[in-house]
Amino acid sequence: QVQLVESGGGLVQAGGSLRLSCAASGRTFSSYRMGWFRQAPGKEREFVSTISRVGVNRYYSDAVKGRFTISRDNAKNTLYLQMNSLKPEDTAVYYCAAASTYLATTASDDYNYWGQGTQVTVSS
Fold first, then answer.
1. Stretch 24-35: mean pLDDT, rounded?
2. CA nearest 67: which of 24, 3, 122?
3. Average pLDDT in the 42-70 region?
4. pLDDT (average), residues 40-66
5. Which residue from 105, 88, 107 is spatially nearest to 44, judged by alpha carbons?
6. Please, what's the b/e burial string for 83-120 (b: 16 or more CB within 10 A of its CB; e: otherwise)?
7. How far apart are the first and last CA of the chain?
8. For a Cys staple, 35 with which of 15, 19, 50, 84, CB 3.0–4.6 Å?
9. Under 8 Å between Cβ of 6 and 21
10. Integer Cα distance of 21 and 42 in angstroms
């Protein structure tokens, strides 16, 4: 299995940027498709972005496309999410997750391992 720890969240003004990191330990990081999800208060967890094992294929939700960039460094066992042009509606707890599947899945049920989450708050 793999253990995931997110960091980099915080409070930022609208229009600002944050970079989230997710450090992985345990089984080989490059064996997993990785994803970012988020959950706002009172809402269900939603897909943000996913990246393939070697980082070639990346997918984004419509809500973040063009503003967020997912990347990974398999040598450092770390996943990233660069978030630019942040909006108040981006406020949520952000989770990284690992999936054994090769499919470019956006379904949270397909992800086997989860971090504890990091809070992102965007003020207007």
1. 91
2. 122
3. 96
4. 96
5. 107
6. beebeeebbbbbbbbbbeeeeebbebeebebbbebbeb
7. 40
8. 50
9. yes
10. 25
Q: Please state, for a pLDDT cut of 90, what percent of the chain lies above it.
A: 92
Q: Which two tokens stand for residue 56?
A: 């070639």
The first and second tokens of residue 119, run together, are 């809070």
Amino acid occupying residue 4:
L
What is the pLDDT at residue 102? 82
Average pLDDT of the segment spanning 95-104 = 92
pLDDT exceeds cutoff 80 at 27: no
Pseudo-torsion of CA 51, 120, 68, 80, nearest 10°? -40
DSSP string, the chain: -EEEEEE--EEEETT--EEEEEEEEES-GGGSEEEEEEE-TTS--EEEEEE-TTS--EEE-TTTTTTEEEEEETTTTEEEEEE-S--GGG-EEEEEEEE--SS----GGG--EE---EEEEEE-
Residue 1 CA, chain-centre distance (Å), reads 18
